Structure formats: structure tokens, C-alpha cells
Amino acid sequence: MNETLLFADISFTLYSVLCSRRRCASYCPFYCTFCCPVAPLAPPSASIRYRISDSLTLETYRDFEAALKVNPAIHELEFFNSNDSKAYADSIVNLFQLKIDELKLHTYARGFCDSTCAFIFLMGHQRSLLKGTEDNPTFLRLHPIFNSNMNQVVSFSTDKYIQEISSRSGNKISQTLLQKMYPAAQQVSSSRDKKY
Questions:
Q1: Range of 143's domain?
Q2: CA distances from residue 3 to 19, 35, 172, 174 in whole angstroms, order as listed
Q3: Which is nearest to 121 in space by CA: 181, 79, 172, 180?
Q4: What are phi and psi of 46, to 5 degrees?
Q5: pLDDT, tens digit, for every residue of 121-176?
Q6: Closest Cα to residue 83, out of 120, 121, 114?
Q7: How many CB atoms lie within 10 A of CB 80?
Q8: Could you identify which of 32, 88, 149, 184 might form a hypothetical disulfide with 36, taking C-beta atoms 3.0 to 4.6 angstroms apart as the criterion?
Q9: 123 and 145 both lie in a single domain
Q10: Same domain, yes or no, for 114 and 19?
Q11: Are 14 and 131 in contact (CB under 8 A)?
């Protein structure tokens, strides 16, 4: 029996990477190349995956852009336990969106993908949630773009990204569903303002 990779593709593109002999223990980003006893052959047009973890900043984007110059074979972007950006969220999402569009990047998320990360992840030309672990499950948390300097939601940008995400998903992720983040964010905000 040949070594094969099985991809479970669910409408929102939820992937589980499996080997035909055993489940990959290390969840390596190279589709089992290093964690299987016999590595499967990579497809002829194998692309390289760039991994980002932790907060997303303008420096994170500059590092990504520098990596692309050194290695133009990067066509996949994986977020691993990435949370929001403390500042410039709108600019960061916009910069990544432009690069994702330019290179037709596929995006992946493993562990938590929060706020700015979730917007960028959902901008991918193909989006894949990778299986997390029991201690670190994979999930997305999306809320409106927030300008911390002005202490307010940036509705124009959020609406623009909602429209783009819905369009890229072929309307499988509806604008109506995504717009529900507004009332949820208001509820969280008002509960924080209550004094006990």
C-alpha cells in the first residue's frame, strides 16, 4: 500500500492531515514529510508554508514579506496560536490581504486564531483549519476591527472585510452570519463596563 495523505475537505475547508499508517504525532506543517516512517512523495508543485505565531504586528508583516523575497515558493500561510494585534489591525489585515491576493495564498490555522488572525485567515484563497490537540484545540474568534487609539469599532473596514470573506467563501459564510459579531461585541463590551 502506498503512503497517501487523506484530506477531509468540509465546506468551510476543515482539514485533518492523516497518514495511511498512523496519525502524525508531531502535527508537522510539511504534511507528514518528517514525522512518518516513510515520507510520501511531494507533489511536483509543492509549495512552502510560512508559519506565524503570537500577536500580529506590522513587524510580523515585514518579516513575512522578507521571507517571500528570500523564498518565492511560499504559497501557504499558517497561523499557530496567533491572536490579535494591539494596534493597526486594519492596516495589518489590509497588507496581508493584498499579499494573499497577489500570490493566491492558501491559509491555515492551528490552535487559537483570534481577531486580526481570523480576518487574515478567512481571506485565504483556500482556508484550512488544522486539527489542534486536546490541550490546544483549534478555533477562530472573530470580532469587529477595533481602533484602540480612538476606542471604537471601525465599521467601514469590518463591513468591507465581511463582504470579502463572504464572497471568497462563495457565500457559504454569509454576511448575515458574520454581521452577528457586532451585537456579540457590544454585549461583551457592556458586560465589561458593569461595576459589581
A1: 47-185
A2: 7, 13, 33, 38
A3: 79
A4: -60, 135
A5: 999 999 999 999 999 999 899 889 887 777 788 889 999 999 999 999 999 999 99
A6: 114
A7: 21
A8: 32
A9: yes
A10: no
A11: no
The answer to whether 179 touches 195, Cβ cutoff 8 Å, is no
Query: For residue 2, what is its C-alpha cell?
Result: 502506498
What is the count of structural domains for the chain?
2
One domain for residues 56 and 86: yes
Residue 177 within a domain: yes
Distance, CA of 60 to CA of 22 (rounded, Å): 35
Residues 114 and 156 in one domain: yes
Domain-embedded: residue 42 = yes
DSSP state of 144: -
Q: What is the CATH number of the domain that holds 135?
A: 3.90.226.10
Q: Please tell me the distance from the alpha carbon of residue 78 to that of residue 130, in angstroms, as a whole number.
A: 9
Residue 28 lies in a domain: yes
Q: How far apart are CA 101 and CA 106, in angstroms?
A: 10
- What pTM value is reported for the model? 0.71
Instruction: Encode 41-73: b = buried (16+ Cβ within 10 Å), e = exposed.
Output: eeeeeeeebbebeebbeeebbeebeeebeeeee
Please list the alpha-helical segments (H only) found in the chain: 58-70, 89-103, 116-122, 155-168, 175-178, 181-193
